[in-house]
Amino acid sequence: MSGFGAAGAPPAPVIEGWKHLRTGKVRDLYTNESGEILLVASDRISAFDWVLPTTIPNKGAILTQLSLFWFELLADIVPNHIISDDVPASVSDRAVIVQPLEMFAIECVARGYLTGSGLAEYKGNQAVCGNPLPAGLLDGSALPTSIFTPATKAEIGDHDINIDFESAANIVGADQAAELRDLTIKLYDTAADFARSRGIILADTKFEFGINMAGEITLGDEALTPDSSRFWEADGWAPGKSQPSFDKQFVRDWLTSSGWDKESTPPELPAEIVEKTAARYEEAFERITGSKF
Length: 293
Fold this sequence. Notes:
D-amino Acid Aminotransferase, Chain A, domain 1; five-stranded antiparallel beta sheet; alpha+beta
């Protein structure tokens, strides 16, 4: 559990009428007497499985408002966990009230482009999570079709591990794994087409699903944010190189060049990196939603 505690994250704030349940890398969860969940997105940022000591201004509000946009856009495909965005004033814009879900113990990842851990696996066996791919693909190459690449859910400070469909079926059951796969691909393809219309490539994304009290598979957590997705600038895309992105790439690149060993407490981020990262999150929100933040 080193990644969170060692980063020195502050304790979750007290919110009247809500009992704190737990704290994650970015979000704090509370519950009330009705059993509803208050999901609060902080301005914390994580990288290399560590929560960093520096926050990114407005990040929590951007993640929350962008998720709300996507939840509404994709509501015809799958129910989501949102009850209301009428939240306590102290967490206005950065929190939502949601249904409690019995979460599936896998991350549901869809990829339409080859990069990151998928690229590393492809170089070893020309496949990603059991999905065979053509030879000759490069970093950033478009895949012939979008693929389902599930992963295990790691504790804070540990790595998610990519798994194949059979392994996912062993965890959640064959029928539910197939339904989660089909939902993940449909959500990804729909969102990717929409993002493309805004000049953005959705290279890959992660969804989390659970079962609601009515027994329905329900989309939870966040949806299609720069924290859970790779968004690339469509005009600058070209396979074989690092793609211009709308996420925490400035943070990752600076940490990599800083000399930090990724084993000890991370360093504070310079103001310039904070400003550039905040600007990219804000630009992603405005490009996708068509609204000023």
